[in-house]
Amino acid sequence: MRRAGTGKARGGEPTLTASDWAEAALQLIAEKGLSALTVSTLAARLGVTKGSFYWHFQGRAELLAAALTRWEQGATTEAMKGLDAVADDRRRLELMLEAASQPPRSRSLYAALAEAAEDPVVRRTLNRVATARIGYLEKCYTQLGFSPAQARSHAVFAYAAYRGLLQLAHEAPAALPTDWSSYPEVIRKALVPERARRMRRA
Predict the structure, then answer these.
(1) Which of 142, 144, 180, 188 could pair with 196 as two cysteines, CB 3.0-4.6 Å apart?
(2) Phi, psi at residue 137, to the nearest 5°?
(3) Sequence spans of domains, the chain
C-alpha cells in the first residue's frame, strides 16, 4: 500500500524518499536501459527491501511515471528557468545549444529513453520535452531577429542536431571528442547564424 511522506527506517535500512527512488531509477535507466528497471534490482542497489519501495509507490509503472516527471522538469522547466536569467539573447541560445555536451549521464539517459520510445509513457514524455525544447529554441531565434518561419526552421534543425549528437553518444561513443573545449565555438559557427549576429550588432 502506498503511503505519503518519507518511509521509516526498519532493521537499519536507510530512509528513502520518493525522490530518492525516482532519481535511482533514472540512474539505472541511464546505465542499463529501461528494461533493467525492476523493483527488485533497484531495491538491491539501494540496499533496502522492496517494502521500502511500496511505502511510496504502488508498482513499477508509478515509479517510472515519477522518474520521467523528475527528468522532464529538469530538462525543461528548471533548465529554461535558468536560461531565462541570462540577459544576453545570443548567449542564452548558445547555452541552450551547448547542453549537448552535458555530463555523460544526461546523454546516456536521453539515449536510453529514446531507445525505449515504444513505451507509450516514455514516448509521450519525450514528445513533451522535444516540443518544449524546440519551442524555447524558436523563441531564442525570434529574439535574435528571425521571422517566425525562419525561427521555427532554425529551431527544428538545431534540435535535430542536438538529438543526433546524443544518439551518437549512445551508438558510437568512440566517435565523440574526448576534449569538448572547442565544442562551444563549433556550435556558435554552425547553429548561431551570422545573420543573427549581425542583426544583434546593428
Answers:
(1) 144
(2) -60, -40
(3) 1-67, 86-201
How far from the centroid of its chain's Cα atoms is residue 57's Cα?
A: 23
Amino acid identity, residue 39?
V
Q: Tell me, what DSSP letter sits at residue 105? A: H
pLDDT digits 0-9 by tens, 26-80: 999 999 999 999 999 999 999 998 988 999 999 999 999 999 999 999 989 998 9
**Alpha carbons 166 and 106: distance in angstroms, whole number:** 9
C-alpha to C-alpha distance for 54 and 46, rounded to whole angstroms: 14
Q: Which CATH architecture has domain 1-67?
A: Orthogonal Bundle (1.10)
Q: How many CA atoms lie within 13 A of 36 on its CB side?
A: 18
Q: Which residue has the cell 531564442?
A: 140
8-state DSSP, 68: H
pTM above 0.70, yes or no: yes
